[in-house]
Specification:
- About 40% of the residues lie in helices and about 15% in strands.
- The chain has about 110 residues and is an alpha+beta fold.
- Strands 1-2-3 form a three-stranded antiparallel sheet.
- The longest helix is centred in the first third of the chain and has 19 residues.
- It is elongated.
- The termini are far apart.
Length: about 110
């Protein structure tokens, strides 16, 4: 019984730490009932590592709301500027997520 209580307390401490992190994108379970199913409790570093681990090469940002921009803008080479006016496609690279429009310009398209 004490082991279970210790495990619950450890999990609660992890949740508290994530809530205190400035770059945590709110999860409904962590943000007091927000019902947006697309929220996830990843820090920018965790989100980037997850994409790299899963071999994601392209990322489509359909809508960049304020929470997403605040949490993840540093991962994008354009600070998510391409996604301000609508959906934007980004190439996932180790140096950052590069807007496809930039890649087209560099290629001379």
């Amino acid at each position: 019984m004490l082991d279970k209580l210790a495990a619950i307390e450890a999990k609660y401490s992890q949740i508290e730490a994530r809530l205190a992190a400035p770059e945590t994108y709110g999860d409904p379970a962590l943000t007091g009932g927000d019902t947006d199913a697309y929220f996830a409790p990843y820090t920018a570093a965790e989100f980037s590592a997850m994409l790299q681990t899963e071999n994601i090469t392209w990322l489509l940002v359909a809508k960049a709301d304020e929470g997403f921009v605040t949490s993840y803008h540093t991962l994008f080479t354009d600070d998510l500027a391409a996604a301000e006016s609508g959906p934007a496609l980004y190439k996932v690279t180790p140096e950052g997520f590069v807007p496809a429009v930039t890649l087209q310009k560099e290629a001379g398209a």
